[in-house]
């Protein structure tokens, strides 16, 4: 059975946040909302336990977003997901550049463990989830 409220919610046109409209010069020239909630712009603390690469990207993206007033404490979880995805993508690209999209891997003899040849396989970083 369809949930009518849910279906209607999916079909609703999503509004562009006021800050983004202001950054783009309010292209539709529609009046800006006056009673819109305005969370205070502040950089959330960097979560503990992150790698150096994660912390570096965290500092960069939060400072850039703060310059235009687009970061609040509410954004912490979304920023963490972004930072993690960015670092993993960077690592995957480095590995693909280093090894290539196709890798030459040794084939070992089953009983002796000696290398008896080579085969080619797709670099696992190419299809990394």
UniProtKB/TrEMBL annotation:
InterPro entries tied to this protein: Phage_term_ssu_P27 (IPR006448)
Region listing for Disordered, in residue ranges: 22-48
Pfam families in the cross-refs: Terminase_4
Identification of the protein by name: Uncharacterized protein
Lineage: Eukaryota, Metazoa, Ecdysozoa, Arthropoda, Crustacea
């Amino acid at each position: 059975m369809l949930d009518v409220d849910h279906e209607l919610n999916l079909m609703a046109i999503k509004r562009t946040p006021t800050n983004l409209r202001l950054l783009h010069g309010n292209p539709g020239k529609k009046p800006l909302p006056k009673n819109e909630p305005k969370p205070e712009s502040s950089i959330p603390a960097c979560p503990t336990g992150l790698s150096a690469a994660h912390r570096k990207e965290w500092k960069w993206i939060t400072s850039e977003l703060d310059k235009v007033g687009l970061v609040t404490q509410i954004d912490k979880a979304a920023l963490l997901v972004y930072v993690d995805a960015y670092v993993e993508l960077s690592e995957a690209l480095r590995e693909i550049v280093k090894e290539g999209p196709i890798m030459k891997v040794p084939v070992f003899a089953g009983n002796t463990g000696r290398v008896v040849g080579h085969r080619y396989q797709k670099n696992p970083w190419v299809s990394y989830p």
